[in-house]
């Protein structure tokens, strides 16, 4: 099996990560000084064979047609396991994990991974089934963050939440039905932030496993944010409360 990474930012971070690149395609005709020429030169410096191809060929390889002139074929994405994530966060008084309860859009997944990396979260956890995975679209939306952020695929989200509780995490689920506003909730310290699927929200069992439910205030005509936008707001609220070292 192999994965494809497309887009300039994602491929730039891929080159820096050390992940093995099997094939590297770049839009033909790139001139010296062009960002694509610089990427190709960097790939060659890493010992990667660069293959100039037509835009039509790149479009064919691209998952969503947003390759920005570069596509890399790489070894399969390596997911972390929950033990690795919890071990890395052990003893930290301020730690954030983001759990996605069957978010299906890869663009949302990638954007959430990017947010998680920017705020310094310890990991993103997604279900193995009926959920988005780290495909080319998710990797592009993550803009390189997936090369630095531990991402775990779990068979049972409820068991993940219970395990996190055992490791001293407080589990907060985002729900439009919650009575408590995020600004008034205890979102500091060791927090697992659980975000529900687009449209349907948290599954009933997931919701019952949370220690508390929080919601974001709304003042407009639309009653909720996109899941990736809502995750960003809540993650930054956690970050705002973290002690500055």
Q: How would you name the CATH homologous superfamily of the largest domain?
A: SPOUT methyltransferase, trefoil knot domain
**What is the tally of helical segments?**
9
Major β-sheet profile: 7 strands, parallel
Task: Based on the coordinates given, report the CATH architecture of the largest domain.
Answer: 3-Layer(aba) Sandwich
How do the helices and strands follow one another from N- to C-terminus? EHEHEHEHEHEHEHEEEHEH
Q: How many E strands?
A: 11
Mean pLDDT, to the nearest integer, reads 91
Shape: elongated
Low-pLDDT ranges: none
Give me a quick take on this structure:
With 245 residues, this protein is of the alpha/beta class. It has nine helices and eleven strands.
Description:
The protein has 245 residues and is α/β, with parallel strands linked by helices. It folds into two domains: 3-74, 60s Ribosomal Protein L30, Chain: A (2-Layer Sandwich); 82-241, SPOUT methyltransferase, trefoil knot domain (Alpha/beta knot, 3-Layer(aba) Sandwich). It contains nine helices and eleven strands. The strands form two sheets. Strands 7-6-5-10-8-11-9 form a seven-stranded parallel beta sheet, sandwiched between helices. A four-stranded mixed beta sheet has the order 1-4-2-3. Helix 2 links the parallel strand 2 and strand 3. The radius of gyration is 19 Å and the shape is elongated.
Record keyword descriptors for this entry.
245 residues; alpha/beta; 60s Ribosomal Protein L30, Chain: A; Alpha/beta knot; seven-stranded parallel sheet; four-stranded mixed sheet; 9 helices; elongated
